[in-house]
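Below is a filled-in request sheet from our internal design queue. Each sheet records the structural input a requester submitted and the sequence that came back. We keep these sheets so that new team members can see what a complete request looks like end to end.

REQUESTER: design group, bay 2
PRIORITY: normal
MODE: inverse folding
CHAIN LENGTH: 223
BACKBONE (tokenized):
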């Protein structure tokens, strides 16, 4: 089942998030929400990355709690990077922090206060239905499926220590999700330059991409 809507929220707003999911799914629109849709014993970061990349819309339950949540910020960054539409559903009269404002300044906001929220949920569902009726988003490659060919595991072609160093370099920019991204890029096959070519676009800013590539190429003599 394809989950067209990814719901991002702070744990403190869990009750609202799951009310929202129930309202959306009652309209026949499938959602992905943690922890409900996390596979038992799986890599949480990997599943969240894949779910965001596969979604067409992210609904952000926005509050003072989510405004200060590093996890929410990382999810929003990922959605914007993958060109997934972000729809902030603001349940408190709070202005976004600078780190979130950068990503949300051009987004359409839906205010959902004061309570009760039933009418606000209904309005959000109508808006989502309109968004999803538009032309499908072209996947950007972060859907968990690789189309490249390989004659074997790339992890076997490079020294694991080198891969670990590349992972640490990438983690300096995007945090723990780097581990999953390096593993996925490794499964693409190819050589060292192919690995870096797959990973560099994960960084939003040109300066960060260039610095990351330079750092990785300084590691290359060790292979």
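RETURNED SEQUENCE:
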């Amino acid at each position: 089942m394809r989950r067209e809507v990814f719901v991002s929220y702070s744990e403190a707003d869990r009750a609202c998030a799951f009310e929202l999911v129930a309202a959306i799914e009652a309209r026949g629109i499938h959602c992905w929400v943690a922890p409900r849709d996390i596979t038992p014993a799986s890599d949480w970061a990997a599943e969240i990355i894949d779910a965001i990349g596969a979604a067409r819309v992210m609904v952000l339950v926005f509050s003072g709690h989510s405004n200060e949540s590093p996890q929410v910020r990382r999810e929003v960054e990922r959605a914007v990077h993958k060109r997934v539409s972000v729809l902030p559903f603001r349940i408190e009269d709070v202005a976004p922090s600078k780190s979130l404002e950068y990503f949300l300044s051009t987004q359409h906001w839906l205010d959902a206060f004061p309570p009760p929220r039933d009418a606000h949920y209904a309005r959000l569902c109508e808006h989502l239905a309109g968004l999803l009726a538009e032309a499908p988003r072209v996947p950007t490659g972060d859907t968990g499926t690789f189309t490249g060919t390989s004659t074997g595991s790339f992890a076997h072609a490079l020294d694991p220590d080198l891969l670990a160093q590349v992972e640490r370099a990438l983690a300096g920019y995007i945090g723990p999700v780097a581990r999953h991204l390096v593993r996925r890029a490794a499964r693409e096959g190819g050589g060292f330059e192919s690995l870096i070519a797959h990973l560099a676009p994960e960084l939003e800013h040109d300066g960060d991409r260039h610095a990351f590539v330079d750092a990785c190429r300084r590691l290359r003599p060790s292979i």
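SHEET NOTES:
- The first strand starts at residue 5 and ends at 8.
- The domain at 5-133 is CATH 3.40.50.10140 (Rossmann fold).
FILED BY: M.R.
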